[in-house]
Specification:
single chain; dihydroxy-acid dehydratase activity; about 35% helix; DiOHA_6PGluconate_deHydtase_CS; binds FE2/S2 (inorganic) cluster; 19 helices; Rossmann fold; lyase; globular; 3 domains; iron-sulfur cluster binding; alpha/beta; Glucose Oxidase, domain 1; Dihydroxy-acid dehydratase
C-alpha cells in the first residue's frame, strides 16, 4: 500500500515470505499486530526516553501514546522503543558523560531495526542533543517532540523557577537566612507537575532549538507538559512523520547551515543556555554542516534578548507559552532579517509560513527588538593565552561591572578542593578576586560537569556580594547566572593553559574585547608547563575508558571523535 517514492527500508524485513519473514512478523504478532500492518505502510519508531530515573520525562508513555495514535491516523505502523535515558538530576558524575553513549544507542537502535521514520521524545537536558545526534548519524525522516516544561512553581507567594531558585535558596540556606524546613517545602513547591525545568535552562533552550532548527512542530518549545495541547502536538507529529516518510524528507533536509544559523540567533533572542553551544557544535558535525565556535559570536552578536525568563529575567515557560511562545520571537527575528524564513520545517511549511500569524500577547514576557529585555545577548567567544581554542561567556547573565576586569586568581584544582575550602573564613578572597576551577572539562571531570558557576564564599555572601568572575573548563547549568567563563579549551587535564594558573596570578577578562588573558610572562609559563603532570585517568575499562580515549574538546562539541559524521540508513546484513 506504500505510495512512497522509494522502497521503504522496512520492506527488507516484512515483505519476505520465507523463514526470516516468519521471524520478523510472527514475533511482533505476539503483541496483537494484525497481518495487514505488514502491507507496506511506513514503520515509525517512537524513540522514548521515559524513565523513572529521568523525572522530567516521566510522562512520556502518555506522549508516546498520542504519537502512536497520530501514526495510526495517517496509516503508519508505530513501534515504540526505549533508549538510554539521561536524568540530569540523578546521574553522576554528570549526565553529559553519557550524552554520546545515548546517541550511539539511538543511532544503532534505529539502523538495526525495520524503521522508515522516527519520532524522538525528548525532554530533560541531554536527552534532546543525544537523540538528535544519534538520529542525524542515520538520517531517516525524523521529527522531534519535546515533553514540555513544568507548570510555574510558587513558594511563599513568589514564583520559583527550576534550578535558578535552587541555587539562590541553597545559598540562602548556607547563609542562614532560611530554615531547612523551608528548604524542603520549596522542593515540593517548585516541581509540582510533570515536565522539564520551566526556566529558560538547557531543556527549554533545546526545546526552542528543536523548533528553530525546524526539526519540531510549531509550538514545540513552550506548551506545558500537562497541557492537552502538548498531546495534540504529539499526535500531529505522529501523523506528519508518515507523510515525511512518503515524501522522503530526511533529517539532513532540515538540518542545514541556515537552520543552525536560525538556532544560534534564536539562542540569543531567548537568552538561552550556554550548553546549546556544545550541543549544536556536536550536532552540526554529525550532519556535516560547517559550524564553529566563532559562528556563535558573530551570528549572535547583534541579537537582543527578547524573553524575560529566569534565570536572566522574571518569568517562566508557562508565561512564555501564554505570551505566544517561540513563534512570537521568531517572527520578530524574521522581520529584522535575522531569520532564514525559507528554511524548511518538519510540518512541511517554511519557518516564515509557520510564524505568519504569530502574536505576542504579553509584551512584558516577550519584549520587542526595539525595546529588548537585554541588549546584545549572544554568546561571547573569548580568546587569549588562557583559552587559545576559545571559551564562552553569556554576557546577558553576567554583572555589567565585571565584564571588563583584572583580578587576582584564587585557584581550585578540583571540585573537591573547591568544596573543601569555599566555606573557610580564612580563604584569601574578596570581591575583586577571580575564581579559577581546573580539571572539570570533558576528560577532566570526566564529562564536563555543570560546576562552572562555583558557589561564592559565605563571607562574601554576607557582605552582599552576589557575583564574582569565575573561570573554568566546565559547563554551567542553563538555569544558572553570573559572570561565568566556561568551556575553556583546551582543558586543564590535558595540559591546557588553564592548568598553569596559580593563586595570586593576575587574570584579565575583557568581554567587549573578547579577551581572556593570564598576565604571567612566557618564561614563567614555560617553567610551569615543563613541571605539569597529567592527572591519573578516571577509568581503565568500560564506556568511560572509551569516552576518555575519544572525547573531543569543548570547541568541537565534546563528541566522540569516531561518532562525527553520518553512516546513513542502509539496511544491515541479514541475521541468519
Ligand atoms: Fe531535567 Fe532540568 S533536570 S530539565
Amino acid at each position: 500500500m506504500t505510495d512512497s517514492p522509494k522502497k521503504l527500508r522496512s520492506r527488507a524485513w516484512f515483505e519476505r515470505q520465507d523463514k526470516m519473514g516468519f521471524y520478523y512478523r510472527s514475533w511482533l504478532k505476539n503483541s496483537g499486530i494484525p497481518q495487514d500492518q505488514f502491507d507496506g505502510r511506513p514503520v515509525i519508531g517512537i524513540c522514548n526516553t521515559w524513565s523513572e530515573l529521568t523525572p522530567c520525562n516521566s510522562h512520556f508513555r502518555e506522549i508516546a501514546e498520542h504519537v502512536r495514535r497520530g501514526v495510526l491516523d495517517a496509516g503508519g505502523f508505530p513501534l515504540e522503543f526505549p533508549v538510554l535515558s539521561l536524568g540530569e538530576t540523578m546521574m553522576r558524575p554528570t549526565a553529559m558523560l553519557y550524552r554520546n553513549l545515548a546517541s550511539m544507542d539511538v543511532e544503532e537502535a534505529v539502523r538495526a531495526n525495520p524503521l522508515d521514520g522516527v519520532v524522538l521524545l525528548m525532554g530533560c537536558d541531554k536527552t534532546t542533543p543525544a537523540l538528535l545526534m544519534g538520529a542525524a548519524s542515520v538520517n531517516l525522516p525524523t521529527i522531534g517532540v519535546s515533553g514540555g516544561p513544568m507548570l510555574r512553581g510558587y513558594y511563599e507567594g513568589r514564583m520559583v523557577g527550576s534550578g535558578t531558585n535552587t541555587i539562590s535558596m541553597s545559598e540562602q540556606l548556607r547563609a542562614g537566612s532560611i530554615t531547612l524546613d523551608q528548604f524542603h517545602e520549596a522542593e515540593a513547591a517548585m516541581n509540582r507537575s510533570h515536565g522539564h525545568c520551566m526556566t529558560m535552562g538547557t531543556a527549554s533552550t533545546m526545546a526552542c532549538l528543536v523548533e528553530a532548527l525546524g526539526v519540531g512542530m510549531p509550538g514545540n518549545a513552550a506548551i506545558p507538559a500537562v497541557d492537552a495541547r502538548r498531546n495534540v502536538l504529539a499526535r500531529e507529529a505522529g501523523r506528519r512523520i508518515v507523510t515525511m516518510v512518503h515524501e522522503d524528507v530526511t533529517l539532513d533536509r532540515l538540518l542545514t547551515r541556515e537552520a543552525f544559523e536560525n538556532a544560534i540567533r534564536t539562542t540569543a533572542a531567548i537568552g538561552g543556555s550556554t550548553n546549546a553551544v556544545v550541543h549544536l557544535l556536536a550536532l552540526a558535525r554529525r550532519v556535516g554542516v560547517p559550524l564553529t565556535l566563532d559562528d556563535w559570536d558573530y551570528l549572535g552578536r547583534d541579537v537582543h534578548c527578547l524573553v524575560n525568563l529566569m534565570p536572566s529575567g522574571q518569568y517562566l515557560m508557562e508565561d512564555f507559552f501564554e505570551a505566544g511562545g517561540l513563534p512570537a520571537v521568531l517572527q520578530q527575528l524574521h522581520q529584522r532579517g535575522l531569520l532564514h524564513g525559507d528554511a524548511p520545517t518538519a510540518n512541511g511549511k517554511t519557518q516564515a509560513e509557520n510564524i505568519g500569524n504569530a502574536t505576542n500577547w504579553r509584551p512584558e514576557v516577550i519584549h520587542s527588538l526595539d525595546e529588548p529585555f537585554k541588549s546584545d545577548a549572544g554568546m561571547a567567544v573569548l580568546r587569549g593565552n588562557l583559552a587559545p581554542n576559545g571559551a564562552i561567556i553569556k554576557p546577558s547573565a553576567a554583572s555589567p561591572h565585571l565584564l571588563r576586569h583584572t583580578g587576582r586568581a584564587v585557584v581550585f584544582p578540583s571540585i573537591e578542593d573547591l568544596h573543601a575550602r569555599i566555606n573557610d573564613e580564612s580563604l584569601e578572597i574578596d570581591e575583586n578576586s577571580i575564581m579559577v576551577l581546573q580539571n572539570c572539562g570533558p576528560k577532566g571531570y570526566p564529562g564536563m560537569a555543570e560546576v562552572g558557576n562555583m558557589p561564592l564564599p559565605p563571607k562574601l555572601l554576607r557582605k552582599g556580594i552576589t557575583d564574582l568572575i569565575r573561570i573554568s573548563d566546565a559547563r554551567m547549568s542553563g538555569t544558572a547566572y553570573g559572570t561565568v567563563v566556561l568551556h575553556v579549551s583546551p582543558e586543564a587535564s590535558i595540559g591546557g593553559p588553564l592548568a598553569l594558573v596559580h593563586t595570586g596570578d593576575l587574570v584579565r577578562l575583557d568581554v567587549p574585547e573578547r579577551a581572556l588573558e593570564l598576565l604571567v610572562d612566557e618564561d614563567e609559563l614555560a617553567r610551569r608547563r615543563a613541571a605539569w603532570k597529567a592527572p591519573e585517568p578516571h577509568a581503565d575499562r568500560g564506556y568511560v575508558k572509551l569516552y576518555l580515549d575519544h572525547v573531543t574538546q569543548a570547541h568541537e562539541g565534546a563528541d566522540l571523535d569516531f561518532l562525527v559524521g553520518c553512516s546513513g540508513a542502509r539496511v544491515p546484513r541479514d541475521n541468519h
